[in-house]
Amino acid sequence: MRLLIDRDRCEANTLCHMEAPDTIALDDNDEPILPVDITDDVLPEVERAVNACPKAALWIED
Amino acid sequence: MSTQTFSYDPFSPEVMSNPLPFYEVLRAEHPIHYLAEYDTYAFSRFADIWEGLNNPDLVGTEGTSPPATVLREHNTGPVPQPPTNPMGSFLRYESPVYDDVRRPQMGPMKARRAMSLEPLIQDLVRRQLEVLLPQGSFDLVQDFGGYVAAAVVCHLVGLPEEEAPMVLETVNRLTLPNPELGGFDREAVQKASVDFLAKAVTRYRNDEAAPEILNGMFDLEIDGRKLTDEEIAVNLVGIFVGGTETVPKVTAHGLWLLQEDRAQWEAVAADLEQNVRPAVAEMLRYCAPAQWFLRTAKIDTTVAGQPIRAGQRVIFLVASGSRDEAEFPNAHEFRWDRKISRTLALGRGQRFCMGAHIAQVEMNIMVTEFMRAVDRFVVHEEQAQRPPSNFQWGWTHVPITVTQRADQGV
C-alpha cells in the first residue's frame, strides 16, 4: 500500500503530519513528502491522516 | 413536531430561532430533504456532508449563503461564474480562479505561519484582559474575543489596531439577517467592508512594507491582468468577515459552557497546556455558528446516492452534522475531552476555512489566558443574545461579571 497526494489540492495545513508524524514528514513548504509506502502497523494512523486532510488531497492505493 | 406536519425551511422564523430540533428530525427521518420552493436538497447527516463537500461538481457560483430571494428563482442549467473583468469576490468563482485568489491570502494563515502569530496574539489577549478585568463586568463576546479577533484581522490586512472596534462593529452590523431578504444583506456587507479595506489597499499600493497578503494580491494576475485597489478590497472581505465573526462567539459560548459545569472547568484548568486544545476542538463542534453552506451543481451529479441536476442546489447543514449521533456519541452534550477524529466545524474540501489555523491559535490563547486569570464568573443570561439567523446562529452578546479572579495576589 502507498499513500498518495494531489499536489494541486494540498495547502500545507499539516494536519496529516500531526496524525502520523513518523510516517508523513513535511518539506520546506510544509507539504507532506509523499508518496510513501505504508505497512499494516501504521495503517490506522495513516487512515486518520487521510481523514484529517481538510482539502481531501490524500488517498491510499492498494 | 409530528412527522406528518414536518417541514423545514432554513429561512423560517422558527428555524432561524433554533434549528437544532429540526436537525434532529431531518437526520432521523429525512436525511436527504428536498426543499421545493428553493429547488434545493438539504443534507443533514455527518457522513453525507463529509462526502458532499468534496464533490467537485458542486460549486459556489451562486454564493455559499444566498438569501431566499435568490433561491426562489430556479435554474434550468448550470450557473455560469461571473466575468473576471471587473473581478468580483473570488468566492463566486470555480477553479482555477478561486484557487488563484485564495493562494496569496493563505500565505500567513497556513498552519505553521499561524503559530508564528502566537506572541502577537498573546500580547493582544493579555492587554485586553488587563483592560477588562478591573472593570469586572463586560461582554465576553464583543469586548474580549471580538476585540482580539478584529485586531488580528487589522494586522493581517494592514489596518492600525485602533481600527479594531470599527471593524468589529461593521461586521456585527452587517452579518445580522435582513428579514426582507430572508437572509443577511450581502450587498451591504460587501460595500461597507470594501470601503474599509480599500483604504488599506490604496495606502500600501506602492509601499514595500505592505502586509504579505496585500503584496500577494498586488502581484496576482487573473486572465493576464492585475487587480485594481477596489477589486483587491472586494476579495479581502472574506478575511474581514470570517476573521471577525466566528471566533468571539465560539470562545464566549465555550467558556460559558465550562463555567456552567464546574467539573469540566476544573478538569481543563488542571492542565491548561494539555487540555485547552481538545476543549477548543469541542467548542468548535458544539458552538460553531455557521449553519449551512450552499453549492450549485455545475453538471448532473449525485450526493449520497441522490441525483442532483445541473443548476439545482444542495445545502450542507454542517451544524447538524456536528450533532450527528452516528459520528459523535451523546452529540448533544458538551464534553471537553471528546475524541474528535473528523470535524465539519471549519468546513471541508476546496473551501475549507482559510483562517482555521489562526482561529485555533486565537481560541487556544484566549481560553488559556482567561482561565488563568479568572476562576469564576456569572453570565447575565437575561441580557445574553443569540439572534435568529439562517447563516451564523451564535451568541453575539454574553454579558458577564467576574466574581473570582484566579490571578489576584499572584
List keywords for this structure.
heterodimer, A: 62 residues, alpha+beta, three-stranded antiparallel β-sheet, 24% helix, B: 410 residues, five-stranded mixed β-sheet, 14 strands
Per-chain topology:
The complex is a heterodimer of chains A (62) and B (410).
Chain A: E1 2-5, H1 15-19, E2 36-37, H2 43-52, E3 58-61
Antiparallel strand pairs in A: 1-2, 1-3
Chain B: H1 13-17, H2 20-29, E1 32-35, E2 40-43, H3 46-52, E3 58-59, H4 68-72, H5 97-106, H6 111-115, H7 118-132, E4 137-139, H8 140-157, H9 164-175, E5 177-178, E6 183-184, H10 186-204, H11 212-219, E7 221-222, E8 225-226, H12 229-260, H13 262-269, H14 272-287, E9 293-297, E10 301-303, E11 306-308, E12 313-316, H15 318-321, H16 356-373, E13 374-379, E14 399-405
Parallel strand pairs in B: 2-12
Antiparallel strand pairs in B: 1-2, 3-9, 4-14, 5-6, 7-8, 9-12, 10-11, 13-14
Helix pairs in contact in B: 5-11, 7-8, 7-16, 8-9, 8-12, 8-16, 9-10, 9-12, 10-12, 12-13, 12-14, 12-16, 14-16
**In percent, how much strand structure appears in the residues of chain A?**
15-25%
Structural class of chain B: alpha+beta
**Biggest sheet architecture of chain A:** 3 strands, antiparallel
* Structural class designation of chain A: alpha+beta
Sheet with most strands: strand arrangement of chain A: 2-1-3
Q: Describe the biggest sheet of chain B?
A: 5 strands, mixed
Strand content of chain B: 5-15%
Radius of gyration of chain A, in Å, reads 10 Å
Care to count the β-strands of chain A?
A: 3
Q: What is the general shape of chain A?
A: globular
N- and C-termini, Cα separation of chain B: 54 Å
Summarize the amount of helix of chain B as a percent range: 40-55%
- Rg of chain B over CA atoms, rounded to whole Å, is 21 Å
Order of helices and strands of chain B: HHEEHEHHHHEHHEEHHEEHHHEEEEHHEE
Low-pLDDT stretches of chain B are none
Q: Runs of chain A with pLDDT <50, length 5+?
A: none
Average pLDDT value of chain B? 94
